[in-house]
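Sequence only, no structure available. Ideas?
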Amino acid sequence: MSSSRKIAIIGTGIVGIATAYYLARRYGIENITLIDRDQPMSFTSAQSGENYRNWWPHPAMVSFTNRSIDLLEEIARESDNRINMNRRGYALATRETDISDFVEQLNNGLGEDASRLLRFHTDDTSKTYHSFQSPDWEGVPDGVDILQNQNLIRNFFPNYDQEIQTLIHIRRGGDISGQQLGMHMLDYLRQTGAKRVVGQVEGITKMQLYRIEVSQADGTQVIEADQIVNAAGPFADKIAKMLDVNLPVYNTFQQKIAFEDTQGAIPRTQPFSIDLDSQEIDWTDEERDMLASDPEFSWLADEMPGAIHCRPDGGDNGKWIKLGWAYNESAAEPTWEPPLDDNFPEIVLRGAARLNPALKAYYGKLPRSTHHYGGWYTMTEENWPLIGPMGAEGAFMNCAMSGFGTMAACTGGELCAAWVAEDKLPDYAKGFSLQRYEDQALMAALRDADKGVL
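Reply:
I predicted one. Tokens follow.
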């Protein structure tokens, strides 16, 4: 591949930046233009939960995210851990003792390595369960620890609901700073001469070169490129339509809150914690009756899905915590202004208090500084990304990263760069391209499988 070829990347979230980074770093491409209407990392990437994990119900996604974590570790080493990587894992809690369905998912995802990587702990103590008190990301065991003894769980997670019966600890997971990851990559791209253009893409035509019309405050600029990459996040389908391509994606809006934990409700060493169980939100009887009588809000009095999550934010010496609950399944047209629900902070707080009862101290009195925010999950029905050729020759895509954009950005960028450069592709490459829709057996299996949405 000629290093002089002109490549335009539409979108400067972490996915677009990572694509440019690996084009420059792996293939020496210097003539890269990044196009976005706003500053880098300021839209969807700014709303990231900034977590990573290799736990998925399918081996292709396990391989995909394992590779991304390998690349994150490379960056952590070379940057003196500028990205604030830790390895406390994901702690998935349930009040169930029969987790055979979940273990089946783990076996499916881990494949032939499952017998080596799954560790069961059923006694009051365990010599093989590795502590998570240190934030170090090196020297931590891989695999999954499954704790099925309440005394053992209470010893390590004393702040959890006392009814928790099973704890599934995904060990190759933790937190990173998505913003610092993006800045690290942008610093490298500046050194290689990559350019940024601020403006909104209004049209794309293909002649000898691609011509991208970019609307700016002082008029329209035309960017010419030999190849283009659609990394436009929630607007990826809109960009694809400019080339008469329809992508099988949709968008949902998911919300989070962050606030200063002045009550010390959440231990600073707590892993990213997820309550797997469905629940009825902890309203008073009067509140529940009032909600149930109002058609607009009656759903809040019904059973809610599981997968509510909580984690400390800002490192061991910080004071903030984050809460999130991706219960929204309604598809919607993406907007630049976030459609925030004013009720969400109290909803997610009361939901999260079921696993961490100390959060009840904030009922009705969240700090004024509470940050309520949200971002678009751009998804395929099967919740796999779309990376690879996109219709016309020289057009590529790196999108549909759902809620895993930050954790998968490195391997997604590396994979997309390999497609652009016509380099050797990993085994999972075709499965993440549009070619997967030609594999009826794969698609049938994915439709029946858990989607891994958190």
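The radius of gyration is 22 Å.
Hope that gets you unstuck.
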